[in-house]
Amino acid sequence: MMNKNPEIGIKPATIGVTAAAGFLAAGVACGVRYEGRRDLGLLLSEEPGCTAAVVQTTNVLKAAPLPVTKEAVATGNVRAVVVNSGIANAATGRRGLEDAYRMQALAAAELGLEKEEVAVSSTGVMGEHLPMDRIEAGIKEAVASLSESGSGFAEAILTTDTRTKEASARVQVGDKTVTVGGVAKGSGMIHPNMATMLGFITTDAAVEKESLQSTLRRATDRTFNRVTVDGDTSPNDTVLLISNGAAGNTPLTAESPDYPAFEGAVEAVMRQLAKEIARDGEGATKLVEVIVEGAKSEEAAAALAKAVVGSPLFKAAVYGEDANWGRVLNAMGYAGTPFDPEGVELYFGPIKVFANGEPVPHREAEANATLAGDEVQVVARLKEGEASATAWGCDLTYEYVKINGSYRT
Amino acid sequence: MMNKNPEIGIKPATIGVTAAAGFLAAGVACGVRYEGRRDLGLLLSEEPGCTAAVVQTTNVLKAAPLPVTKEAVATGNVRAVVVNSGIANAATGRRGLEDAYRMQALAAAELGLEKEEVAVSSTGVMGEHLPMDRIEAGIKEAVASLSESGSGFAEAILTTDTRTKEASARVQVGDKTVTVGGVAKGSGMIHPNMATMLGFITTDAAVEKESLQSTLRRATDRTFNRVTVDGDTSPNDTVLLISNGAAGNTPLTAESPDYPAFEGAVEAVMRQLAKEIARDGEGATKLVEVIVEGAKSEEAAAALAKAVVGSPLFKAAVYGEDANWGRVLNAMGYAGTPFDPEGVELYFGPIKVFANGEPVPHREAEANATLAGDEVQVVARLKEGEASATAWGCDLTYEYVKINGSYRT
């Protein structure tokens, strides 16, 4: 049902944050919050002289690691990331900021790097301080266990996620093959305007810094920012993209003939991670894909699609496998984008349910059947223009309520 | 815990839509969707020459009755309302609009009024046509059973609501006592920007039309628009205010010395109805009141308070009786209003949990205990200015998911 992008490699040995040449990673258990689960990840480019780009949350409240990472990307050549799960280091005041700087300094010292070469990230519960002795021990252990496998890192960044999320893509740039790999974590507190809590993307392409930043911004808007689980935008959201040039290509800029191919690879990796985040939303049983076509701009199409995937009423109906198209139309109606409801055609899978301002006669059981699987697709065709956009979400379930009624305890 | 407004009378015999002099109402069962439950309501002012004001949904999709009622309020002297529950007459095309006009005409004919004196309203499922033969029979029965009791009307407008919502207030205007009464229905698809699906407010005060409209607008913004159950704004939302002058006061305008007292009474009635809607949100077990103080404007305070009551993560935590203040702060952070998080003081009931950018040490069990009852109050004090606002919502429960996973079936 979903479009699978053919260029995405799903070979276990090569996906994820170490798929691109020259990247090593580790994930260790240091007991940040729970015993015996990986909760500290480390990522390193063996190549120096990397360029990096970052997109962070729009929340007024920003977790302590965010300014530290922003400063590193702005002033240094970030080539390493240290990240913990379990405690978000958010709403932790001056001590929280000191802890984030200390994580950076500890990782830099162990790796023999400048502080400005290390990005820092945290995810987990808010309002608690990090156990810095355990973090320190974890960093030492992680440095000692760096390898070409990204799977430990992918595990170490999870919170209520039920599975790891990794992807990769390869494209030709001149006479070189470049690889883009990535890892993400999501689950709860997921909403457009920095959707995912954490995403780390790596590439062995050599890319000029400003181009890299604009590519990350654009790809984030089209992928992670098109996902909603629950409308809650977290203070920790960060997507970081590091390029190390290990592929040996002539450095790319936005003007390079092969740049669209590279940008497409970045977007493809991030799109797959975004869909995995939606599919693994807290309590989710179904991935929901909403496609809006015929809008007057991509922004309008995206706003309409995001309103639908974000509607609790629609999400509950999907869970109940009730093809309640009225809720789709209703959510589009409050998206803040003008359109003519009479010009809308609505489809649940292949079943047309609404057109010309009225229900299209159809067998309800047939429409409901389009919701029976674990991937659901709803399409809205407008008569406003030529633009389209896709947004991803999940159903709203008892389990979501259960998880979030007792997350801290 | 909540401030009870002392001027609101809770005497069963006098509250509701017939509390003001000269109003009659009826509620009958005509089988719009279910057998044996009241589903058609009729409201009439015995006094002619009423003035009326209306505020309707901001949803691009507007149910068929909305333009009919808007036109009546604009061109006529609305003194009667006919309303059905069960079917929303939304997304029903040309036939839906014809049905709404026909409901108006049928009620006008039975009551011996001009069509423009009758407002029309519907609530229920979208995308289905009204059974006009039953509506017609119901209107006849309702006209025959008009009385000074508003309780049948209050019942007839309910859908998934679990109880009726009525209120009234009395104030002195010159040497006359004027009464404001009201009824509302809410439950699901409830969100700021016309919060409640339906509210009908009546007063025996004589009030000039433009003043009445601005009073309704302002009171709606401060009451119904401060309620959220699930973030879904319905296409049927309507609040109608009718004044019939039966109190015999010199007609009020916005400049009258007693106007603030009258406006206060309208707002008090609507506030009580708004809180009842929040308390009776689909699946709700708790009324949640969030007060934001020290904001730089009432709009900013309202935006912050509404973001908190609207956060699914916060709502689920309230259900789980987990005083997860991080989710309060986080929701404020994405409200779209700038503020300094370091300047925020957060309280769960009387327990201070956050100040100066850090958690305030407190016993978690004590903070959780503030969530144990059926009314929950959270206060956020900012250091941005002098303005404050209150918003109301409810917890997110398994039952909400259950109701909305199977509403149509």
Q: What characteristics describe this protein?
A:
409 residues, alpha+beta, 11 helices, disordered N terminus
Characterise the protein shown here:
The structure is a homodimer of 409-residue chains. By secondary structure, chain A is α+β, with helices and mostly antiparallel strands. Helices cover 31% and strands 24% of the residues of chain A. Chain A has eleven helices and 15 strands. In chain A, the strands form three sheets. A six-stranded mixed beta sheet of chain A has the order 13-12-11-14-10-15. In chain A, strand 6 (165-173) and strand 7 (176-185) form a beta hairpin. The first copy, chain A, is globular, with a radius of gyration of 21 Å. At the A-B interface, helix 2, helix 8, helix 9, strand 13 and helix 11 of A face helix 2, helix 8, helix 9, strand 13 and helix 11 of B.
Write the layout of secondary structure elements.
2 copies of one chain form a homodimer.
Chain A: E1 23-28, E2 40-45, E3 51-56, H1 65-75, E4 80-87, H2 93-111, E5 118-125, H3 132-144, H4 151-156, E6 165-173, E7 176-185, E8 198-203, H5 209-222, E9 238-243, H6 259-279, E10 287-295, H7 298-310, H8 312-319, H9 325-333, E11 345-348, E12 351-355, E13 358-359, H10 364-369, E14 375-381, E15 387-394, H11 398-405
Parallel strand pairs in A: 4-5, 8-9, 10-14
Antiparallel strand pairs in A: 1-2, 2-4, 3-9, 6-7, 7-8, 10-15, 11-12, 11-14, 12-13
